[in-house]
Amino acid sequence: MRTVGFEAHDHESCREGGVAAAAAHCAARGLQFTPVRRRTLEILLSEHRAMGAYDVLEILGKEGFGAQPPVAYRALEFLVKHGFAHKIERRNAFVGCAHPGADHAPAFLICRICDRVAETRARPAMTLLKDLAGESGFRVERAVIEAEGLCADCREVAG
Q1: Least C-beta-crowded within 10 Å: which of 22, 25, 96, 100?
Q2: Into how many domains does the chain fold?
Q3: Does residue 54 lie within any of the structural domains?
Q4: What is the pLDDT of residues 76-129, one digit of tens each?
């Protein structure tokens, strides 16, 4: 799995691929991929950037999907539950999954200046964490790996 988020690439391809994967997943499992869920995912996939629920809600509201917080929160909850989006805990924000349909344990690299988020693999770190926890009899059930810093573009500007 390659790291996606900071390098220049075709965002349209990300958006189309992510939405297609979500639609296929929902169809195969009898889940409703409603227009607001679809549009919320499109918004998240339009940029690899952490977006708060109110950022998403503002766009949805302007497009006629409703301006009440439950509209965005329900759509985001559905997308995270089914692996189409991830919650960035440190920012209380969301990002579209860069590898929809893949069995993966993601880690997130978050630029503190531009808010872009790159998704990379966490499996090596997760293995180490589980091994260390296991030494004390602790079983890890859920872990989120997030690293905050500066992307190459922002490092260049910051000097």
Answers
A1: 25
A2: 1
A3: yes
A4: 999 999 989 999 998 899 999 877 766 667 888 999 998 888 888 888 888 899
